[in-house]
Specification:
By secondary structure, this protein is an alpha/beta fold. A five-stranded mixed β-sheet has the order 12-11-10-13-14, with helices on one face. It has a three-stranded parallel β-sheet with strand order 4-8-9. The protein is built from 14 helices and 14 strands.
Length: 361
């Protein structure tokens, strides 16, 4: 099975919350976990980062379930969202707890971000099977919980709030797991009092995208899509971060993409909608490139498309660092991705079958 709807894509993004304990019992349980338990929580950690902005607190952040006010600089941050650790690290804040997504990197910190630890210990890794691990989160004694890139339900939000610290849920303006990387970075910056630095970081990556668009005018207005061979052909919608990468490089998504998949981050296509794959450039996120190419070659519907005949495809292995960085889509992973995907797309988009799309290192 492809990893692309990873951990929370199929299981987490589409799951419903488990049966909740009564609020009184839960509150007592979480209070006990958050108090002086037998196992001491790890010490607060911060790498050398930017200074807190003057007058940064109090600050209020709107989200799907209302608003959350943070009154002072957080020292012990736990991420329930799947990628916010990158924004925190970029700002010089090492979270004490992170939620596992890709499940392969120590501390759930990708190689593109490890230098930002600044010598600090790795955060504790939390699981998300039927929802956040409330007791373990409480035991970490957080003073802020961030769940921006998440599918947090109202019940889960309320349950986390009973720990007694500010909880920042995903924004209501987007689908679950739909917050763009730049907005996520800015909201994390606001939450930890480093909005100025967050804006600078975002501008740096946006400038890198702008430079690519300048150097590759052939990308402008060409159609592109990201897909996987998960359950047939799985495509990512306009609010998914992987699609944002293509748009930021100058490509456009199929006009009827969201109409075909609905309000989800992505969806497996029916056979009659295989036409959506026929793009000027098509990025495949797959487990094994050679096997995927074999499967695609045997599919009469797909192999008859122009994108296949002209070899306008880019194949990226899910389990590699590159594929993981593509799925993360953060202020730290994007520069790593841009350096690798741009030459591949340049080779794919020319439409000449003789042009080899070389694997990225």
């Amino acid at each position: 099975m492809a990893r692309i709807p990873t951990l929370s894509a199929v299981r987490g993004r589409l799951k419903t919350a488990g049966v909740l304990a009564s609020s009184l019992v839960l509150a007592a349980s979480l209070t006990a976990c958050g108090g002086g338990g037998e196992s001491p929580a790890p010490a607060a950690q911060n790498s050398a980062g930017s200074a807190v902005d003057a007058n940064a607190f109090p600050t209020t952040i709107e989200h799907k379930y209302g608003s959350t006010t943070i009154t002072q600089e957080p020292k012990r941050v736990v991420t329930v969202g799947l990628t916010e650790q990158d924004a925190l690290l970029a700002l010089g804040v090492v979270p004490v707890g992170v939620t596992e997504w890709l499940g392969k990197f120590p501390g759930t910190i990708g190689p593109w971000a490890t230098d930002k630890l600044g010598g600090a210990a790795l955060p504790e890794v939390l699981k998300d099977v039927d929802g956040p691990q409330y007791e373990k989160i409480a035991a970490l004694k957080p003073d802020l919980i961030i769940a921006l890139y998440s599918g947090l339900t109202k019940e889960q939000y309320d349950k986390l709030s009973q720990i007694g610290v500010p909880v920042v849920a995903q924004p209501k303006e987007y689908n679950d797991y739909g917050i763009p990387w730049n907005e996520a970075t800015k909201k994390v910056g606001q939450a930890v009092g480093r909005a100025t630095k967050a804006n600078e970081l975002v501008k740096g990556v946006e400038d890198k995208f702008a430079q690519v668009r300048k150097e590759h005018p052939e990308f402008q207005g060409k159609s592109a899509l990201m897909a996987s061979t998960y359950e047939g052909y799985f495509v990512y919608g306009s609010q998914d971060g992987r699609s944002h990468i293509l748009e930021s490089l100058g490509f456009k998504l199929p006009a009827d993409l969201d109409a075909a998949i609905g309000d989800k981050f992505g969806k497996s296509l029916s056979a009659e909608r295989t036409d959506l794959l026929d793009r000027d450039a098509l990025v495949w996120l797959i487990d094994t490139p050679a096997k995927a190419q074999e499967i695609l070659g045997k599919d009469a519907l797909y192999s008859g498309l122009k994108v296949a005949k002209e070899k306008r495809e880019v194949f990226i292995e899910n389990e590699g660092t590159y594929g993981s960085a593509v799925s993360f889509v953060t202020v730290l992973s994007l520069p790593y991705v841009i350096d690798r995907i741009v030459p591949q797309l340049a080779a794919a988009v020319d439409g000449d079958p003789k042009t080899e799309v070389k694997p990225a290192s």
